[in-house]
């Protein structure tokens, strides 16, 4: 079998775990709008700590409902601003009352005689809210165009969720583009019911203006899905009780070895059917809350105490299967030890695009200006 061995952990352009503000991967990710929080979790006039991309921030929602992201700490004596008080669109530190507007300007120091100095201003970041998520831009200069998806602006039901995972965002991205693992990791899952497990697909990948078009050909279907550079997957996914739905999933690093998957589905149901669907989702969540927690099962599977195949069906079975596959990857993750084959074409392309962009970034640019067509649709492509 043909193999390629081109990667080295010594090459900084392949250190995809270096996601902090000084790391190449971190600087690259910061040049795109990134989802950072689920909208419904942030109440009006409330603040919360936010850890994302290896850094700490404060997120809050002003009295007019607009969300804001600013620095984690007050510059006075470095108290967390997330325990502060939201006043209008500003936040006041809980400790001695310094107040910062949503652009980070220090506008009040109650115990001082002089007006606040701009030296006490804090960092603030452009913030947008869309399809149930709060996005922020942490990069230099003006943010790029905000990504929009017209299917999500139609009459479908938009469902937003998040999942914290104890493995790296890049391992998850590679797993997302790897359809061969359906036949093994998920051989006992919902994929069986929609013909995604019967045969190993023939895979191809093309670079596009937005990232990668992935094509998986099986005799019963051709499946198209997309990687939106740098860290978003756009595909159709299936649930027994729902059918196919558009699925956006941003894999955003929290730290080098953990990430949050921010997921937004567009469900094409209305009226009584939609009510029934929501009831099913709520029932599954209630059932899951009574079962052994996901993290405990993952730990047992990785320690050899049990096998994920021992589990009966549960709503998070596919996630558990992926978690075991991801948790079992050798650490530290050295991609130089991988032997990529022809069926890894999509993984090879993902690494190649990232490597090319990180190399350009290290050399001072220019980077490719990725654009997402508004009408981009993933398809399950059943012929
Ligand atoms: S620590 Fe914030 S005002 Fe003193
Ligand atoms: Fe998977």
Please outline the helices and strands:
Elements: H1 24-29, E1 34-38, E2 47-52, E3 55-61, E4 67-71, E5 85-87, E6 90-92, E7 99-100, E8 106-108, E9 124-125, E10 127-130, E11 133-136, E12 157-165, H2 169-176, E13 202-207, E14 211-218, E15 221-228, E16 232-239, E17 243-255, E18 258-267, H3 271-290, H4 294-303, H5 317-327, H6 345-362
Antiparallel strand pairs: 1-11, 2-3, 3-4, 4-9, 5-6, 6-7, 7-8, 10-11, 12-18, 13-14, 14-15, 15-16, 16-17, 17-18
Helix pairs in contact: 4-5
Bound molecules: FE2/S2 (inorganic) cluster and fe (ii) ion.
Structure commentary:
The chain is of the alpha+beta class. The chain folds into 2 domains: 33-136, 3-layer Sandwich (Rieske Iron-sulfur Protein); 150-362, Alpha-Beta Complex (Naphthalene 1,2-dioxygenase Alpha Subunit, Chain A, domain 1). The protein is 19% helix and 28% strand. It has 6 helices and 18 strands. It has helices at residues 24-29, 169-176, 271-290, 294-303, 317-327, 345-362, and strands at 34-38, 47-52, 55-61, 67-71, 85-87, 90-92, 99-100, 106-108, 124-125, 127-130, 133-136, 157-165, 202-207, 211-218, 221-228, 232-239, 243-255, 258-267. Helix 4 crosses helix 5. The protein starts with 23 loop residues before the first helix and ends in a 21-residue tail after the last helix. Residues 1-9 have low confidence and may be disordered. The protein binds FE2/S2 (inorganic) cluster and fe (ii) ion. FE2/S2 (inorganic) cluster is lined by residues 74, 76-77, 79, 93, 95-98.
């Amino acid at each position: 079998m043909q193999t390629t061995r081109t990667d080295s952990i010594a090459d900084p352009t392949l250190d995809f775990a270096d996601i902090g503000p000084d790391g190449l991967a971190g600087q690259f990710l910061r040049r795109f709008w990134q989802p950072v929080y689920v909208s419904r979790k942030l109440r009006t006039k409330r603040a919360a700590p936010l850890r994302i991309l290896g850094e700490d921030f404060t997120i809050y929602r002003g009295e007019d409902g607009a969300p804001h992201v600013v620095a984690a700490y007050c510059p006075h004596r470095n108290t967390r601003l997330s325990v502060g008080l939201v006043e209008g669109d500003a936040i006041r530190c809980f400790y001695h009352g310094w107040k910062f507007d949503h652009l980070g300007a220090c506008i009040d120091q109650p115990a001082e005689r002089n007006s606040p100095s701009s030296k006490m201003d804090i960092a603030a970041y452009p913030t947008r809210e869309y399809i149930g998520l709060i996005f922020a831009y942490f990069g230099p200069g003006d943010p790029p165009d905000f990504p929009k998806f017209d299917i999500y602006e139609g009459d479908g039901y938009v469902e937003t969720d998040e999942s914290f995972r104890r493995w790296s965002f890049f391992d998850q991205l590679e797993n997302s583009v790897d359809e061969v693992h359906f036949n093994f990791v998920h051989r006992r899952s919902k994929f069986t019911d929609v013909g995604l497990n019967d045969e190993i697909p023939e895979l191809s990948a093309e670079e596009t203006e937005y990232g990668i078009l992935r094509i998986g050909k099986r005799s019963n279907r051709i499946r198209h899905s997309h990687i939106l550079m740098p860290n978003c997957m756009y595909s159709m996914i299936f649930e027994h009780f729902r059918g196919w739905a558009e699925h956006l999933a941003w894999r955003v690093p929290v730290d080098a070895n953990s990430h949050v998957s921010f997921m937004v589905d567009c469900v094409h149901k209305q009226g009584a059917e939609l009510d029934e669907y929501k009831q099913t989702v709520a029932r599954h969540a209630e059932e899951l809350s009574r079962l052994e927690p996901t993290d405990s099962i993952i730990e047992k599977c990785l320690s050899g105490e049990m096998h994920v195949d021992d589990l009966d069906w549960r709503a998070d079975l596919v996630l558990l299967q992926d978690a075991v596959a991801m948790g079992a990857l050798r650490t530290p993750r050295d991609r130089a030890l991988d032997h990529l084959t022809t069926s890894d074409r999509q993984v090879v392309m993902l690494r190649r695009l990232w490597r090319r962009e990180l190399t350009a970034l290290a050399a001072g640019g220019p980077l490719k200006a990725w654009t997402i067509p508004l009408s981009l649709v993933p398809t399950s492509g059943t012929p």
